[in-house]
Write a structure and sequence with these properties.
This protein is of the alpha+beta class. It folds into two domains: 16-168, Sandwich (Jelly Rolls), CATH 2.60.120.280; 184-297, Arc Repressor Mutant, subunit A, CATH 1.10.10.60. It contains nine helices and eleven strands. It has helices at 110-126, 149-168, 184-202, 210-217, 221-232, 236-254, 259-265, 271-282, 286-297; strands at residues 16-24, 30-34, 39-46, 48-53, 56-61, 64-68, 74-78, 85-92, 105-107, 127-128, 140-141. The strands form three sheets. The chain has a five-stranded antiparallel β-sheet with strand order 1-8-3-6-9. Strands 2-7-4-5 form a four-stranded antiparallel β-sheet, with no helix packed on it. Helix 1 packs antiparallel against helix 2 (149-168) and helix 6 (236-254) packs across helix 8. The longest helix is centred in the middle third of the chain and has 20 residues, at 149-168. It starts with 15 loop residues before the first strand and ends with a helix.
Amino acid sequence: MSYKSVYLQDTLSIHEIYSIHYFEYMCDFSFPGESHDFWEFLCVDKGEVNVLAGEKFHVLKKGDIIFHKPNEFHDVNSNGLIAPNLVVMSFSCASPVMTFFEEKVLQISEPERLLLAQIIQEAKYVFAGRMDDPYQEELIPSESPRFAGEQLIRLYLEQLLIQLVRRYMVRPDQPINPTIVKSIKQKADGELFSQIQEYMESHICETLTIEQLCKSNSVGRSQLQKLFRTRSGYGAIEYFSRMKVDLAKQMIRENHYNFTQIADALGFSSIHYFSRQFKRITGMTPSEYASSIKALSDQPG
């Protein structure tokens, strides 16, 4: 037999990245704006922000992603009420397909959200320094990076952009293709995970047990734990605890309540237990977190 190879074409490739950020902003944060000769996108993970892109004003909410083409002026501001969590990445890409993203505000799907999370996770081990520093202008390689971490970041980012193009760039005579080929079970698991997430969000001020989660969502105990381990890396109750702490961080940044009020509002038995849980998950006490975020926000541009 005589085999012949097929050269795999690159439709979209990225080999230069300038920034990878995950911001937890105060509710009154304001970035004065900038322009640069490379691409940038901003995705709202939680909360809401106001963005100026060129001459267009946008109000972005959870799941919205906006792309800024090279040399487009853009700024971002909190709305004074809701403390946002944002993913911001900038990169170079000369592919003609990038014109698709010009002046675009899109909605990410669950597979795309997971790709963003994988990029953030890899970046923690590939680059040194804080990912929430808005004034960091250079990615410094880590002294002990994960094997092939930079390549995975590139592949995840390319896949993210390709999936968005596939999902949104559809011909009128062509049915919409899913962003990623999944089995029926995988799709069902994703829907169940989202359902339980929503249930947790609606009961975030309460104390939930495994039994309550199983009964209210018609799922077995072992299936529930396996689902959360696979999807998040944590058990269901640990995931719920981290949701509480994430909301506590947002409430601290919004600066409307003191720590005791936040602990009470989120169903913690005492301020001391709240502080212990907060430090266990974030590595900082609530006071240290508040000081850290304020210090970043107060840095000069």
